[in-house]
Amino acid sequence: MIEKRYNPKTSEKACLSYWEKEKTFHFINDNDLRPFCIMMPPPNITGSLHMGHALTFSLQDILVRFQKKLGKSVLWQSGTDHAGIATEIIVEKKLREKKKIKKELGRKRFINEVWKWKEESGNSIIKQLKRLGTAVDWSRKRFTMDQGLSEAVNKVFVSLFDEGIIYKDKRLVNWDPKLETAVSDLEVNQKEVNGKIWYLKYKIFNSDDFIEVATTRPETIFGDVAIAVHPDNKKYCKLINKFVIVPVSNKKIPIIADTYADPNKGSGAVKITPAHDFNDFLVGRRHSLEIINIFNKSAKLNENVTKEFIGLDRFEAREKLIHLLKKDGNLLKEEQNVMTIPIGDRSGAIIEPFITDQWFCDAKELSKPIKKMIKDSEIKFHPESWVNTFNHWIENIEPWCISRQIWWGHRIPAWYLDSGEMFVAENLEEVKIKVEKKLGTTKFKLYQDQDVLDTWFSSALWPFSTLGWPKKNEELNKYYPTDVLITGFDIIFFWVARMVMMGKKFMKAIPFKNIYIHPLVKDKDGIKMSKSKGNVIDPLDLIELYGADALRYTLASLSTQGR
After folding, report:
1. Which of 61, 152, 249, 453 lies at a 20 to 30 A Cα distance from 229?
2. 508: burial class by Cβ within 10 Å (0-12, 13-18, 19+)?
3. CA 173: distance to chain centroid?
4. Which of left, alpha, beta for 105 (phi over 0: left; psi -120 to 50: alpha)?
5. Nearest residue to 322 (alpha-carbon basis) of 232, 221, 414, 181
6. Phi, psi for residue 437 in degrees, rounded to 5
7. Residue 105 CA to chain centroid, in angstroms?
8. What is d(CA 18, CA 168) in angstroms, rounded to the nearest whole number?
């Protein structure tokens, strides 16, 4: 007897069972059919999927099924991403619940714990996508840290290193003191807050006069190496090339002329701390100033400050310092100040500019051919307006810090001798051959670089590494470049731009003929849904109530070409 009301649970369960039994979505490379390929944006192994994923995969599924109906040989390449920092945060949290600490476990045992989590989370993701009804052949899924993709990552790293595009340098980076690792500009959110600005008195050396300096970070005075004033500053130009005494530390530093100091901002005089401000770092390089780092990895004051401040948290030090400045008569005034502070996207900690040795990729060099492609309209965005956003980022691209001070990820393929001499190669065997050839002996010890690569480095290779590159094969020739990428606008810079750069560099063609940008699914407050923010809705909850078809249809119908 036919039920009066449609029961999605019953019918969908039957469909899923039939599809799995008959291997309905099993991929077959039919040479007689025209190819069509979509790369699945690999979801992070940080738990279960949310509504944003449901939207992305529903839109892809529509295209995949439509192209199959047209009689094409359709490849929807599936897989998951290891999500370095985000995954470490989750696994560390789970360990703390068991009264265990990452550093006490050690690197090897901690990595084993992460692999266990990967199996648990990865299976959960696949289960969700199956329940969503996606036409995916999961038998050919890839993972950003499986052996084949790891080989591709190492090959790309070594190739770019040999060309000088990847290099190691001591530079100022965005440092997350909670996670104790560098993070990219794209992983830092700018938050407007009500702060303060303090006006300090720096006494002129061998004089009773002083210069007034405004700062929002008085605790960094221990890293002061100069005071900058604009060369046309009528009030202070006569002081250029003289010296001042830094309050509390009593250090003598020069007054320099630099156009960075805005005469109409603050007091017109700027204290320069090259180790703790990106603009100050550039000023320091222009004037060959000393770089003094006053923080350790957790943003506590180190031995480069006066004894009574060593070991204090940066904000504890600020309070203590303000008290001393008031007591000594060196605090002229303080004012309320609306300011923007950098917040780590993953940890929520205030990001600290920090000077460290890091690995960088010359993204500007990689993007050179992309500029011409944009000009010639070879990169097609839908809606077209997103190409302007893409172009703006390419025009203003900065060196890409690709190293992270965590354990979960692709280990940097660089090894060191006791002397500190570095060798880069795709694997340990190749390194040993290089060292033996140079030293003429087999007696030496090698130490691999402790850092891992930024998650987006391996993801940037996804369109061709998942098809078997660097090995040449029929699939790679047939399905690359892919036909369309479907993704949200929030990762145009994180992922899309980097795939375009790497695809052009190593495959001589951009990875996709079209880029379809869909809007984001947001919560009731207009904030993007994110597992790290905890404001997500599990698609399975809605599927249980209304069925997969109803959810997919709703998401697709609401997916207008906007934000």
Report:
1. 249
2. exposed
3. 12
4. alpha
5. 221
6. -65, -40
7. 26
8. 54
Task: Provide the token pair at 283.
Answer: 């000023």
Q: Tokens 């100050």 identify what position?
A: 280
Strands 79-80 and 447-448: unpaired
Alpha carbons within 13 A on the beta-carbon side of 260: 20
Q: Could you tell me which residues are beta bridge partners of residue 505?
A: none
Task: List the structure tokens of 371.
Answer: 């500029």
Provide the residue-wise pLDDT of the chain in tens; the chain has 563 residues.
577 788 888 899 999 999 999 999 999 888 889 999 999 999 888 877 788 889 999 999 999 999 999 999 999 999 999 999 999 999 999 999 999 999 899 999 999 999 999 988 877 888 888 999 999 999 999 999 999 999 999 999 999 999 999 999 999 999 999 999 999 887 899 999 999 999 999 999 999 999 999 999 999 999 999 999 999 998 898 999 999 999 999 999 999 999 999 888 878 899 999 999 999 999 999 999 999 999 999 999 999 999 999 999 999 999 999 999 999 999 999 999 999 999 998 889 999 999 999 999 999 999 999 988 888 888 999 999 899 889 888 888 889 999 999 999 999 999 999 999 999 999 999 999 999 999 998 899 999 999 999 999 999 999 999 999 999 899 999 999 999 999 988 888 889 999 999 999 999 999 999 999 998 888 888 777 766 667 778 888 899 999 999 999 999 988 876 66
Residues 59-69 as b or e (16 or more Cβ within 10 Å = b): bbbebbeebbe
**CA gap 442, 189 in Å, rounded:** 49
Tokens at residue 416, please? Answer: 């060191």
**Tokens 């300096």 identify what position?**
213
Q: With contact defined as beta carbons under 8 Å apart, do 427 and 154 qualify?
A: yes
Q: Which two tokens stand for residue 196?
A: 């303060």
**Residue 9 contacts by C-beta under 8 Å, 6 or more apart in sequence?**
544, 547
Element of type H or E holding 427: none
Tokens of 246: 């830094």
